[in-house]
């Protein structure tokens, strides 16, 4: 018996649905982990970084030990009222 176009289309949709289900199965736990990591970053890492900076620790060392980028470090410093030098305008 020959296949009609609707049958081929239905099979393609079943394959797509299975692939999307697999993406969802790995995507949902990833989203949960990222949310927990973000919570930890704000609740644990940020206060520790600010305390270290206020204690006089070198900014670069604090950033490396916290495993954060400079943009986030300076954002936290500004939020905490710690002076941040103004970035020089690019030429």
Number of strands: 0
* Percent of sequence in beta strands: under 5%
Mean pLDDT over the full residue set: 93
Silhouette: elongated
Profile the largest sheet: none
Give an overview of the whole structure.
This protein has 91 residues and is an all-alpha fold. The chain has one domain. 76% of the residues lie in helices and 0% in strands. The longest helix has 50 residues, at 5-54. The radius of gyration is 24 Å and the shape is elongated.
Topology:
Blueprint (H helix, E strand, L loop, with lengths): L4 H50 L4 H8 L3 H11 L11
Characteristic key phrases:
single chain; 91 residues; mainly alpha; 76% helix; 0% strand; elongated
Could you write a compact summary of the structure shown?
With 91 residues, this protein is an all-alpha fold. The protein has three helices and no strands.
